[in-house]
Specification:
Blueprint (H helix, E strand, L loop, with lengths): L18 E4 L3 E6 L2 E8 L4 E2 L4 E4 L13 E3 L3 E5 L6 E7 L4 E9 L1 E6 L5 E7 L6 E7 L4 E4 L6 E6 L5 E6 L2 E6 L7 E2 L8 E5 L5 E8 L2 E8 L7 E4 L5 E5 L5 E6 L6 E6 L6 E3 L8 E3 L5 E6 L2 E8 L6 E2 L3 E5 L9 E2 L5 E7 L9 E5 L8
Antiparallel strand pairs: 1-2, 2-3, 3-4, 3-5, 6-7, 7-33, 8-9, 8-32, 10-11, 11-12, 12-13, 14-15, 15-16, 16-17, 18-19, 19-20, 20-21, 22-23, 23-24, 24-25, 26-27, 27-28, 28-29, 28-30, 31-32
Length: 367
């Protein structure tokens, strides 16, 4: 919890979950498959009692980046249902499903390795209820856990596909992608960093960081003094992706009042081009740098990019396809730009999972 007028934040919970404050003074959050409430003093910003259960059997999505419960002081509503709600699905450029990667599960942030042989993904373990980084080996059709601590996020591959950087517990670590050796801390990254890219030349880690109620894009040089430097300070700039030739950076920003995709020189040199026009929050380069892909809702868009002779120009954005995909989650692109990996909702039974409404829930809460 923090103030919009200060960059300082107070850690309230160690659980990785969505949290909701509601009158007359509770914070609600998911703990595994349980919905719990904990008394909270909003003036002194501290808990005043222990958490107590409100419901069991919440859908897995409660432990990810989306909430499936809501409440006011009088009304509570929550969504219960089955596990294994997601698929990792390959699509071609026309939107045809090419098949699923692995079993149904709870997935986020799939990242295809630069050599195209593996996928790193955040997966919620059904038994431990912890989120860790897992590796799908595409050549051997194996599926193995890379991190064991729980709470691991935002895996990013090194350009040689041998290492992965991930976030855990307010810090960042590096580990061999094959699981060998010890985890190494990346001490130069600030606690509020969210790594989004590792440049193809191996020289920089690109990361988002918060500045009050705004986000900025920074770079950590992996040479010299290893001192982070700001790269993009546009309104709510985030999810920086550097081009394969390491000369341009694509990112999302709310400079127009809503998230759109922009491209600038990397390192910054004054040029800026707006790519999307109907709202978009993330983009991906084709490996040769001649095409950029971005999402507009459930629509995958593409735009041609020309950087010949050091100049820069883009074509008109065009829709490749529209698909039923999980919103606000990353996607990956094959080297040739012919296949795309998305998190998609798994097929569910015809009978929908129920919504439960509880009236006057707070008046009966134990404090």
């Amino acid at each position: 919890m923090g103030s919009l007028d200060s960059p300082k934040f107070i850690r309230l919970l160690t659980e990785t979950t969505v949290a909701l404050y509601t009158a007359p003074g509770f914070i609600l959050y998911a703990r595994g498959n349980a919905l719990v409430a904990r008394p909270f003093d909003a003036r002194r910003l501290r808990f005043t009692g222990e958490a107590f259960p409100l419901a069991e059997g919440l859908n897995d999505v409660a432990a990810s980046s989306a909430a499936n419960f809501s409440a006011t002081g009088r009304v509570l509503v929550y969504h219960t249902g089955g596990d294994a709600t997601d698929r990792l699905t390959w699509f071609d450029r026309k939107g045809a499903r090419l098949g699923d990667l692995g079993p149904a599960g709870s997935y986020m942030q799939p990242e295809l390795s630069p050599d195209g042989t593996a996928v790193a993904v955040i997966e919620l373990d059904a038994k431990s209820r912890k989120q860790d980084t897992w590796i799908f080996d595409l050549a051997r059709s194996t599926h193995s856990r890379l991190t064991l601590e729980g709470g691991a996020f935002t895996p990013v591959w090194s350009p040689d596909s041998r290492r992965i950087v991930f976030a855990h517990g307010g810090a960042h670590y590096m580990k061999a992608a094959n699981g060998a050796g010890q985890v190494q801390p990346v001490e130069q990254l600030p606690p509020d960093a969210k790594v989004t890219d590792w440049t193809a030349d191996g020289n920089y880690l690109i990361f988002d960081r918060r500045r009050g109620d705004q986000a900025e894009i920074w770079a950590l040089p992996l040479f010299g003094g290893h001192q982070p430097v700001p790269v993009v300070s546009r309104p709510n700039a985030r999810f920086g992706q550097v081009s394969p030739d390491s000369r341009w950076i694509a990112y999302a920003s709310e400079a127009t009042g809503r998230p759109e995709i922009f491209i600038e020189n990397f390192p910054p040199a004054g040029g800026r081009w707006q790519i999307s026009t109907h709202g978009s929050s993330q983009a991906r380069w084709r490996k040769d740098g001649k095409e950029l892909f971005f999402l507009e809702g459930n629509r995958l868009m593409a735009v041609d990019v020309n950087t010949n002779s050091g100049s820069f120009s883009v074509g008109m954005p065009r829709q490749l396809f529209e698909a039923r995909i999980r919103p606000l989650t990353r996607f990956s692109v094959s080297d040739d730009g012919q296949r795309f990996l998305f998190v998609t909702p798994a097929e569910r039974p015809e009978q929908a999972d129920p919504l439960t409404v509880v009236l006057n829930w707070a008046s009966a809460a134990k404090q």
